[in-house]
C-alpha cells in the first residue's frame, strides 16, 4: 500500500469557506460515499480544515451563538464532548464568536464509570482553560445511581438516570448562569434517535429530535453543533491529532473510546444498540443514509389531528416540563388532581417514599402505574420504560 | 512481513488489553502478496482472544470499526483488497461506544 497523504492524493486544498457548500448540501453533492474523507480523498491537513470549517458554517448558518453569550458544553469525557470542547474553543478564538465557554458535567454516582470519565473532564478543564462545573445526583436529589440501582434493580434504572440527567444539566446550566447548552450529539446519534422515535411512535420527540436548537421557550436552550457531523469523522479527528497533542488528549480519546469499560455498567441498552448497528450497516453501503435519515426526520409533517403534548410547569420544583411528562402526584394531602409534578419529582418522591416504581413507564397517573405494577408482578415486561435516558434530546 | 497493528476504541480489550502489536505475518501458501482480508483472518485467529463478533462480521470488520492503513482510511485503498507491504501500520478503532 502506498503512502497516504498529503500532496498528490489530496483532491482539494484549503480554500475559503465561502467557496464550499454548506455541510448538508456538501454531503448530498458528494454523490457516492458521503464521507468527504472517503469520496474527496483529502489529506490530513485538509481534513482538519474541512472538519472545522463545516462546524463553523453550521454554527454561523444556524446562529447558534451570539457575541457575549455564556455557553456550557455538556461534557461527559467521551469522544464527542471532548472533541466539541476542543473545536468550540478553537473556533471561538479563530472566528471571534465572543462567547464564554464552560464545561458542565453530571456525576450520576456510578462507581467505576463516571468517576473515571470525570477525571478526563478535569484534564480537559486544565488543557482548554475552560471552567468546569460538576453537578451530582447526590447533591441535587440525595441519591446516587449506585444507591438507586440497589433499590430498583437493573430494570428501570435508565429511566431514573435519563430523567435526572436532563434536569441536572438544566440546573447546572442555571448555576453557571449560561445562555445555552451545547451537546456533542453527532449525526449518527440523531439518525438513531429518529429511527427509535419512529419505532416507538413518539411523535412529540420525533418532531423535535432533529432540531439543531431545542428548548428555546424554556430556561436553557440546547444546541447540537455536531448535528451534521459523522461519528466516523469525530473519531478520525482526534486520532489524527494524536501526534500533535499532549498525553492528556491522547488519554481523553483512548480512555473514553474504550467501549467495554466505558459503556455504562448499568445499561445493557439493547434496543438502541440494535438501531446503532443498523445505522452502521447502512453507512457501510451508503454513508449518506445517515444524513438522509435526519433529513427525513426534519421533513416529517405531523398531522394536525395528532395530539401533541403541551408544556407545563412542575408544581413541585418549578421546572418546565412537557405535559406528557407531568404526572399527577398520588396520595397527596392536597387535591390530587390539581397537583402536577414533573417526572423527575415523581420518580424522586417514589424513591423517598419507598415506592420506586412510581412514575415508571409511560402511564400518566397513579392508576396506570398501579396497573403496570400489577402486571409486572405477574411477570409482564414493562415495555414502557426506556432503555437509556440519552434518547432525550 | 513485519506489520504494526494498533487497536483502539476498546478493541484492545479483545486482545489482552494490548494496544500495539508488532507482528510477523506471511502471505498464504502459493500467494506472493498479503492483503487485508488475509490479515483480518490472521488477526482473528492469532490476536483476538474473546468475543470475535465485536471485531468481525463475515470476513470483514464489523460495521462501525474504522480501519486505517498507514494513517489512510482503508475505504480509499480498496478495503479487503488493500495489499500490505513490509512495515505497514494498520489501525483498528471502534466507534460503537463511548460518547
From TrEMBL, chain A:
Binding site for ATP: 74-76, 80, 106, 184, 189
Top-level division of the source organism's lineage: Eukaryota
GO biological process: protein urmylation; tRNA wobble position uridine thiolation
Residue ranges of the region described as Disordered: 1-29, 362-393
Domain tRNA(Ile)-lysidine/2-thiocytidine synthase N-terminal: 71-232
Entry keyword Transferase: yes
EC class: transferase
Molecular function, one GO term: tRNA binding
Pfam families attached to this UniProt entry: ATP_bind_3
Cellular location(s): Cytoplasm
Pathway: tRNA modification; 5-methoxycarbonylmethyl-2-thiouridine-tRNA biosynthesis
SUPFAM superfamilies xref list: Adenine nucleotide alpha hydrolases-like
Composition-biased stretches (Basic and acidic residues): 367-378
Alphabetic keyword roster: ATP-binding, Cytoplasm, Nucleotide-binding, RNA-binding, Transferase, tRNA processing, tRNA-binding
Gene3D superfamilies: HUPs
EC number: 2.7.7.-
One annotated Gene Ontology cellular component of this protein: mitochondrion
Biological role stated in the UniProt entry: Plays a central role in 2-thiolation of mcm(5)S(2)U at tRNA wobble positions of tRNA(Lys), tRNA(Glu) and tRNA(Gln). Directly binds tRNAs and probably acts by catalyzing adenylation of tRNAs, an intermediate required for 2-thiolation. It is unclear whether it acts as a sulfurtransferase that transfers sulfur from thiocarboxylated URM1 onto the uridine of tRNAs at wobble position.
UniProt similarity note: Belongs to the TtcA family. CTU1/NCS6/ATPBD3 subfamily.
Protein name, per record: Cytoplasmic tRNA 2-thiolation protein 1
Automatic annotation (TrEMBL), chain B:
Family the entry assigns: Belongs to the URM1 family.
Localization per Swiss-Prot or TrEMBL: Cytoplasm
Highest taxon above the source species: Eukaryota
1-thioglycine found at: 99
Protein name per the record: Ubiquitin-related modifier 1 homolog
InterPro entries registered for this protein in UniProt: Beta-grasp_dom_sf (IPR012675), Mopterin_synth/thiamin_S_b (IPR016155), Urm1 (IPR015221)
Record key words, sorted: Cytoplasm, Isopeptide bond, tRNA processing, Ubl conjugation pathway
Function: Acts as a sulfur carrier required for 2-thiolation of mcm(5)S(2)U at tRNA wobble positions of cytosolic tRNA(Lys), tRNA(Glu) and tRNA(Gln). Serves as sulfur donor in tRNA 2-thiolation reaction by being thiocarboxylated (-COSH) at its C-terminus by MOCS3. The sulfur is then transferred to tRNA to form 2-thiolation of mcm(5)S(2)U. Also acts as a ubiquitin-like protein (UBL) that is covalently conjugated via an isopeptide bond to lysine residues of target proteins.
Organism: Camellia sinensis
Cross-link type Glycyl lysine isopeptide (Gly-Lys) (interchain with K-? in acceptor proteins), residue numbers: 99
Post-translational modification as stated in the protein's UniProt record: C-terminal thiocarboxylation occurs in 2 steps, it is first acyl-adenylated (-COAMP) via the hesA/moeB/thiF part of the MOCS3/UBA4 homolog, then thiocarboxylated (-COSH) via the rhodanese domain of the MOCS3/UBA4 homolog.
Pathway noted in the entry: tRNA modification; 5-methoxycarbonylmethyl-2-thiouridine-tRNA biosynthesis
Amino acid at each position: 500500500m502506498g503512502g497516504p497523504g498529503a500532496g498528490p492524493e489530496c483532491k482539494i486544498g484549503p480554500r475559503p469557506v465561502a467557496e464550499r457548500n454548506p455541510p448538508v448540501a456538501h454531503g448530498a453533492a458528494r454523490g457516492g460515499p458521503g464521507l468527504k474523507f472517503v469520496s474527496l480523498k483529502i489529506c490530513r491537513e485538509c481534513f482538519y480544515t474541512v472538519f472545522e470549517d463545516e462546524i463553523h458554517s453550521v454554527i454561523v448558518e444556524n446562529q447558534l451563538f451570539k457575541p457575549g453569550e455564556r455557553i456550557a458544553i455538556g461534557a461527559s469525557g467521551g469522544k464527542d464532548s471532548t472533541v466539541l470542547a476542543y473545536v468550540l474553543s478553537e473556533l471561538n478564538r479563530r472566528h471571534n464568536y465572543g462567547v464564554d465557554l464552560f464545561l458542565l458535567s453530571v456525576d450520576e454516582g456510578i462507581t467505576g464509570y463516571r468517576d473515571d470519565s470525570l477525571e478526563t473532564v478535569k484534564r480537559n478543564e486544565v488543557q482548554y482553560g475552560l471552567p468546569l462545573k460538576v453537578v451530582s445526583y447526590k447533591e441535587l436529589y440525595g441519591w446516587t445511581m449506585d444507591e438507586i440501582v440497589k433499590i430498583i434493580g437493573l430494570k428501570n434504572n435508565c429511566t431514573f438516570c435519563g430523567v435526572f440527567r436532563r434536569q441536572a444539566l438544566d440546573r447546572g446550566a442555571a448555576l453557571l448562569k449560561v445562555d445555552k447548552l451545547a451537546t456533542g450529539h453527532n449525526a449518527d446519534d440523531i439518525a438513531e434517535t429518529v429511527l427509535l422515535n419512529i419505532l416507538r411512535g413518539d411523535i412529540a420527540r420525533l418532531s423535535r429530535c432533529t432540531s439543531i436548537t431545542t428548548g428555546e421557550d424554556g430556561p436553557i436552550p440546547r444546541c447540537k453543533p455536531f448535528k451534521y457531523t459523522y461519528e466516523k469523522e469525530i473519531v478520525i479527528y482526534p486520532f489524527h491529532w494524536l501526534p500533535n497533542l499532549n498525553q492528556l488528549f491522547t488519554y481523553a480519546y483512548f480512555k473514553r473510546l474504550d467501549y467495554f469499560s466505558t459503556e455504562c455498567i448499568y445499561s445493557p441498552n439493547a434496543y438502541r444498540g440494535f438501531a446503532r448497528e443498523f445505522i452502521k450497516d447502512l453507512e457501510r453501503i451508503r454513508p449518506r443514509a445517515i444524513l438522509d435519515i435526519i433529513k427525513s426526520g426534519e421533513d416529517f409533517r405531523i398531522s394536525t389531528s395528532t395530539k401533541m403534548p403541551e408544556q407545563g410547569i412542575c408544581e413541585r420544583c418549578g421546572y418546565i416540563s412537557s405535559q406528557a411528562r407531568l404526572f399527577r402526584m398520588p396520595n397527596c394531602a392536597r387535591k390530587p388532581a390539581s397537583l402536577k409534578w414533573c417526572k423527575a419529582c415523581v420518580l424522586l418522591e417514589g424513591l423517598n417514599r419507598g415506592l420506586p416504581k412510581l412514575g415508571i413507564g409511560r402511564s400518566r397517573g397513579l392508576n396506570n402505574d398501579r396497573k403496570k405494577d400489577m402486571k409486572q408482578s405477574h411477570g409482564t415486561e414493562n415495555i414502557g420504560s426506556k432503555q437509556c435516558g440519552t434518547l432525550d434530546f | 512481513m513485519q506489520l504494526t497493528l494498533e487497536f483502539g476504541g476498546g478493541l484492545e480489550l479483545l486482545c489482552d488489553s494490548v494496544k500495539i502489536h508488532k507482528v510477523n505475518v506471511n502471505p498464504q501458501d502459493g500467494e506472493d502478496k498479503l492483503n487485508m482480508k488475509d490479515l483480518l483472518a490472521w488477526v482473528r485467529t492469532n490476536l483476538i482472544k474473546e468475543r470475535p463478533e465485536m471485531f468481525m462480521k463475515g470476513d470483514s470488520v464489523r460495521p462501525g470499526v474504522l480501519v486505517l492503513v498507514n494513517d489512510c482510511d482503508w475505504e480509499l485503498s480498496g478495503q479487503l483488497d488493500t495489499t500490505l507491504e513490509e512495515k505497514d501500520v494498520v489501525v483498528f478503532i471502534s466507534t460503537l461506544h463511548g460518547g
